[in-house]
Amino acid sequence: MCGIALSIGEEADPAIFRRMLAILSARGEITEARYETGVLAGTRRLRVVDRERAVQPWTSADERWLLCYNGEVFNHRELRAELAALGHAFRGDSDTEVLLAAFEQWGEGAVTRLRGEYAFAVVERTTGRAYLARDPLGVKPLYWARKPGCLHVASEVKALVGHGVPIGEVPPGHHGWADPGGQVRLRPYLDLLTLGAGLPVIDDPDEAALLVRAALRDSIRVRVDTDLTVGVVLSGGLDSSLVLRYVRELHPDCVAVTIGVPGSPDVAYARRIAADLGVPHEVVELRPRDIRLADVREAIRISELTEYGDIINAVVSVPLFRRLRQLGVKVALTGDGSDELFGGYPMYHDVAPAASRRLFLHKIRNLGRTELQRVDRTSMDLGVEARVPFLDLSVVELAMRLPLELKMRDGQEKWIVRRAFADVLPDYVLRRPKNPMSYSSGLHERARLYRPFFARLHRSFGYHLLEPVRRDFDSVLTRCGNDLDRAIADGLARPDYTVLEHARDLVGAARWNAAPMVRRLVGPRRTRGDEAPLPG
Q1: What digits encode the pLDDT tens for the residues 412-430?
Q2: Which residues are documented as binding site?
Q3: Are 46 and 40 in contact (CB under 8 A)?
Q4: What are the Glutamine amidotransferase type-2 domain coordinates in residue numbering (predicted)?
């Protein structure tokens, strides 16, 4: 819901702080800031919950604490009731106010009570100490940079590169304290690797299906608790169709948006499911030749991503969220995370179960800097808050307890998801194999044509101050036979692609992009009498 920025310490400069906040302007509608000696704090707020009264930075009733907050706490109503019973009085209805009250009541333990997608900073105004926290999956971002006498904190890397110093990241599921202009000490409050540990494995298909269905439906329910129109990013595949099905049931004021090549299977499937559900549907038609170097540059500027494949996907995401903004949609749900949780990648099934679980955990731990970073940047740059119901902590924990044989069965990936929702989705969706939109339509290969420029463009924005562009880890895994240890070592030894790899990639992409032109040149010419009749 916001972009946040803070400069804390005796050297905090109002002019520098204002520039940081201005760089985050796309993340919201209004700028709100507070200037105090040694504490400069502000937000660029996207007004979603309690739109008029949830002004930030929010201060506690006793004026001790100041909060800058990005995201949503979906259980804020339950927490409000609990805190009110403990004596807290509330001035409005926002989750912002509930979050600070929870911190006042439970201190650092408050973060373990939150169900949501968030990143925030709580500053003790008299000392300048700042408490930083980020949600367990890393849906919402938080970064910091330290200069003599001042600590800078911001929602995006681009707001910090102007300081010219190394940039640090608050990792997913971490929290801790930062001294003004001093040390940042962070530690995990939740370890995804041990989530669900000690709980029994759920290996009965009927029980697993019921639990998956209940968990996902509830996750969608809390994410559509708004009086605003809700958008759904619809690819026509299993996951996004499932999200659309329940959004339509739980929040009828919704719209679906699809991006794809005209006539591609993705667009056809998306049109069909939207029509069957009676949901208004917008299609952003994009042809491979429409993607130019300027589009790639803009995607890199917006996304700050560090893997090639994620950048390519961001190129396609930007025009999709642009259309949502044009429709006036502020809140949208996506199907991201299902493949990682429920066995949508071949690598999970090509190795022994123990190795598969390690790959699974590695993918989950890195979502914050890959898939989720793409979703956050490309949506928030267009003023849209994207929510990811598959990555609710309850759904993630459940997926941790399911054995691999329930995720892949009879050659069918995400088998348990298909089983759980067999009676609510049509067969043409349930039986459709995984077919990523960008690959099937040629958009991926078109963007790949510009891949040799990615690292240079990334450096031009100063993003290497956090991390340089690195090779696609999935590609490294494939070359290492899905051996995680070998792949990690290989990635450290050769973090970026070699010149030879770039050349080979360029030749392959050029061949693919040239094929349509060759077909047009050598194919038979149509006469007016040969034209296909229009549908009757």
Answers
A1: 899 999 999 999 999 999 9
A2: 95, 259
A3: no
A4: 2-181
Instruction: Kindly list the catalytic residues.
Output: 2
pLDDT digits (tens, 9 = 90+) for 194-220: 888 889 999 999 999 999 999 999 999
Q: Indicate where the chain has its CATH 3.40.50.620 domain(s).
A: 193-439
Whether 40 contacts 180, CB under 8 Å: no
pLDDT tens, position by position, 455-479: 999 999 999 999 999 999 988 999 8
Per the annotation, binding residues for L-glutamine are 95
Structural element, H or E, at residue 518: helix 499-522
Tell me the DSSP string of 12-41.
--HHHHHHHHHHTGGG-SEEEEEEETTEEE
Closest CA to 125 of 55, 183, 39: 39
Question: Which pTM value belongs to this model?
Answer: 0.92
Does 143 have pLDDT greater than 50?
yes
Q: Which CATH superfamily is domain 2-189 in?
A: Aminohydrolase, N-terminal nucleophile (Ntn) domain (3.60.20.10)
- CATH 3.60.20.10 residue ranges of the chain are 2-189
267: Cβ contacts below 8 Å, ≥ 6 apart: 236, 258, 260, 261, 283, 285
Indicate the SS3 state at residue 280.
Answer: coil
Q: Which CATH superfamily is domain 193-439 in?
A: HUPs (3.40.50.620)
Measured CA to CA, the distance from residue 75 to residue 291 in angstroms comes to: 41
> Which residue blocks in 189-334 are alpha helix, DSSP H?
205-223, 238-250, 265-277, 293-303, 308-326
